[in-house]
Amino acid sequence: MTVITGSTALKPERDWNIGWADVGPFLALAALMVIGFAINQDFLSATNLGNVITRSAFIAIIAVGATFVISSGGLDLSVGSMAAFITGITIMFMNRMAPEWGVAAIPAGMLVAVGVGLFCGLLNGLIVTVGKIEPFIATLGTMGIFRALITYMSDGGTIPIDRGLRDAYRPVYFGTFAGIPFPILISIAVAAIASFILYKMKYGRKCAAVGANEDVARYSGISIIKTRTIAYAIQGACVAIAAICYVPRLGAATPTTGVLWELQVITAVVIGGTALRGGKGHVWGTVAGAVILELIANLMVLSDFVSEYLVAGVQGVIIIIAMLIQRFSK
Amino acid sequence: MSNVASIGRSSMEELSEASRPVRQPVLRATGLSKQYGSVTVLSDITLDILPGEIHAIIGENGAGKSTFMRLLSGYAEPTAGSLLMGDVDVKFGKPERAQDAGIVLVHQEILLAEALTVAENVFLGRELMRNGTVDDKTMRRLTREKLAELGCVVPSNALVRNISLADRQLVQIARALLDDYKLVIFDEPTAVLTGDEVERLLAIILRLKAQGTAVLYISHRLDEVQRLADKVTVLRDGKMIGTYPGHTLSQMDMARHMVGRDLAALYPPKRANVASKTTLAVRSLSVPGFAKDVSFEVRQSEILGFAGMIGAGRTELFEGIMGLRPATGTVELRGKAVDIHSPRAALDAGIGYLTEDRKGKGLLLQERLAPNLTLSALARFHPGLLMRRKREQAALTEAVDQYDIRLKNMGVNAGQLSGGNQQKLLLAKVLLTTPSVVVIDEPTRGIDIANKAQIYAFIQQLVSEGKTCIVISSEMQELIGICDRILVMREGRIAGEVSGESMTEHNVALLATSVAAGNTEGGRE
Q: How far is residue A139's CA from residue A123's CA, in Å, rounded to a whole number?
């Protein structure tokens, strides 16, 4: 028999491979923009878009972290409570230190936030991997714990940030650089770092392999425990960064901070093109997903035909449509 | 092919003439064919299945036996040909319809709901009702009776999860025998059963025959076929070789019909240059539930075979050595102890393992080839933090060339390759970790003959390069064809060793089964 190998005859493997999951979210985003402009000319104004995207920043940043967790085959329901908990601890720490350290308490508080975030993420990760508890159940548990802690810390009320710090901290949410609001810049930076980790580093390969098929990864000598735990720790750090941006927005932490964020985060990841059962993660798709969610809410406020009370309903429809497209485009 | 079937029929008529009138076939297959894409797995099978007759179907792995069974029992649709019941051309479409028509398949794999009880499984989908509620009491009684006939003593309310593999197989058989069927198809029913259980099952099958039920019996155990079968149909490479009266056929004849080709050409010639240096030494290794106190050594440039029945613990033993399962004992590679608790440690020490389940555990089917190729060797390929895609791409080009992996272009996913090419990719993947000992579990399962020969040649080449190879296989001929020495496992222990002159199917089968002992007079030597 003749053996046809001549590798020259083969097309080289492309570095990128574009599918629905890659472009879908951006097409949807573009379509929303067009619809928005048709409904209300103000929709595309720099101010309105700036506001919308800034508001979506918290979800976007957390969802970038969730892309790691979901890509590796996990799930984290605790992110909303964790955000509230970290916000509370951060404000309490800064308030405590403000008299001695003055404005220097702010960067110190940010470090504390990231530390607490990493710790919380690590905790989730270890419960899931070492404790071998289903991610849904494990993070349902920690979700309750974080929520109870912030309620306890705030005594059911609010934890406001010290007046002396408020003005100094304000620009983190309200400031701009070259006309672009800080939260947007921070989201872009977080997503850029995340896509570097996911697509350019070995860890990203491991993460996708563990999520796509745990057995194959295990048989290939990849540590499931390490890979997944790191994903949860990254998630924790992202929640901390979102919390840092969130503090100046209201200037306080309350027991209702971040309620239902976890659902928005999962929605953003999934409409961004990452499969909920794990596998390849789509960082930029996730960011687009978060913006889409906020845009829909904004559109409904700006338009008159649908009540804004139905926002969650429309978002629900969107996630189902996104899933159907992913299913039938295969 | 029709002449072959008519030979079978006429001989059958002779047999039955004295006692009964000529019987109408339960099921008649004419020109039955099945293609998957461009691959023909079964072509032009014409066969009559008569009531009260045990008809054995034999053939090598990949001969098309399972496909044939699936067509008869509604699990797959033929691409050509027809199935006749009486004068009616039947198209089942799904297994339920075949069952309604009186045909049931007893699967080789265990298809039971583990979280349900034995009785619930036996009656799954056809629960008995009484006054509008499920009649558990009656179902449990009937289950007990059926299992007692099979000599199975598990309680009817035990969870399937908690019973042994052999008991599960018996439960599955009980499920199939609950109703009266016209045709019962057994696909390797004795693969996981032990001596007494096999005997009881054979007795039941003979009773089915006496009741006038038609039985199709697929088995690799030629001694069983010889004892049971009224007729034997041989399949090879998807084609029907012939139907023969069972009693006239020796096991030797059956094997010759099944193989039908010059076996010597398939296997590379053996070399006699096994080094004296021991590479891998395993001592008192136990994998709870699967392997007990296993010790063996392999030398450099040696091909060591592991034979045994399904469920003998061969795969699990090596998964234990690789750190993929909890295990106790010691493993030494070239005199240095290997940590058996981490797959990474085993790979780094230089033991590579090709899983038998390449689709489920070997390759990421949705992923492209290069990431699959380097997955076990990420650290070596990409030192530091960043990935070196160029290097990876070069490795793929080299592997495609070296292992003759056929593909349309380099951008395909692993799942788009044929079985043989997937196996070659998996081999390339494991060898990228530069192992000194390569363990290959079922090297040629589900791949065609040309790829088989290539894989054997690769294995030969590995040992000629000074590596050590361990081959686990359920195909005895394959082991005998390529190995220098074969260890036979039975029920988690090493039952014995064969090499040189003693390396025959007869001896391997003898060690692998406790039943084989009394019934292998006609066995091949």
A: 10
